[in-house]
Amino acid sequence: MTGHREPTVVGVPNFNAMEDAATLRAAMKGFGTDEQAIIDILTSRSNAQRQAISQAFTHEYGRDLIEDLKSELGGHFEDVIVALMLPPEEYLCKELNKCMEGLGTDESVLIEILCTRTKKEIADIVQAYERLYDRPLAEHMCSETSGDFRRLLTLIVTRAPQGARDEEAGVDAARAAESAQQLYDAGEAKWGTDEEVFNKILAHESFAQLRLIFEEYKNIAGRTIEQAIKAEVDGELKDAYSAIVECVQSAAAFFARRLRAAMQGLGTDDTTLIRVFVSRAEVDLAAIKREYERLYDKTLESEIRGETSGDYKRALVALLGPA
């Protein structure tokens, strides 16, 4: 996961929160709602700018912007707009909570959110989760998952502040060779797989360091880490390991595949579409767009236009930015 960002949403220069708040108020006042005005403003402002609009709105009108939007909008369009209005870590906490509440847990959401984020992002999520739900994320996750999969996720979230996924530390070639040997010894070199070793390395090392480790692994094992994971591991743990490996190679390709899966088959997984669009728009949605076209020979925009409709479609297309 390289440091350069490829966002589709960067905010606007000469931003004026008060003006935007007034435009939004006018769009929702009286009969009917001007959905296009809402789309134009909220899909082009950065999250920090949206927070400023929200404050200006309350200051000026004594009203809660999110509540007003909820009462005026509906369906998946409302979901996109409300998601855009939340601070990023709060939005992801809500998604994590939603995937664990009720019957059954959607492990793919846990994997998508937790296995693909940097240490700093995870630390923000962990902090926000406890603030919002009054219980630690690790504890909630432990009650909803099991086995080595649970241990991996717990390592990712509990070590966050002290050193899991240390992105700042630079890379260390000698240590990478050591880790690669440990992975080889824990997997292919013996009967059965020692998941503890895999968990420790895959949860803790930075994406840049993991890239080196995986290259070394190939030299030692004569096959790629993906091939080893497919052969040695199964179930959710395999999916989690694979997500980490994919993100090390190309986070954009991981999310492109995630979007493809959300649009394939019967019905559309709108929650995933919205989550990927909203959570990656200021990170790498431009790169995801490019990867999507490379992998599937179709533009992401044409796929979205085919899968969605109305204001919901217009909002997603606006987040994608110009072709």
Descriptive report:
By secondary structure, the protein is mainly α. The model has no long low-confidence stretch (mean pLDDT about 95). It has helices at about 15-30, 35-40, 45-60, 65-70, 75-85, 90-100, 105-115, 120-135, 135-145, 145-160, 175-185, 195-205, 205-220, 225-230, 235-265, 270-280, 285-295, 300-305, 310-320. The chain is built from 19 helices and no strands.
Please give a quick description of this structure.
Helix content is 71%, strand content 0%. With 323 residues, it is mainly alpha-helical.
Task: Considering the chains and any ligands shown, give keywords for the structure.
single chain, mainly alpha, 71% helix
List the helices and strands and how they pair.
Layout (H helix, E strand, L loop, with lengths): L16 H12 L6 H8 L4 H15 L3 H8 L2 H11 L2 H13 L6 H8 L4 H15 L3 H8 L2 H12 L14 H14 L8 H10 L2 H15 L3 H8 L2 H29 L6 H11 L4 H12 L3 H8 L2 H11 L3
Helix pairs in contact: 1-2, 1-3, 2-19, 4-5, 5-16, 5-19, 6-7, 6-8, 7-15, 9-10, 10-12, 11-12, 11-13, 13-15, 14-15, 15-16, 15-17, 18-19
Please give the count of helices.
19
Q: Radius of gyration from the CA trace?
A: 21 Å
Question: Strand pairing plus helix content: what structural class?
Answer: mainly alpha
Mean pLDDT: 93
- Low-confidence segments, given as residue ranges, are none
Strand content: under 5%
Alpha-carbon distance between the two ends: 24 Å
User: How many E strands?
Assistant: 0
Largest sheet entry: none
Q: Which assembly state applies to the chains in this document?
A: single chain
What is the H-and-E element order?
HHHHHHHHHHHHHHHHHHH
* Helix percentage: over 70%
Shape call: elongated
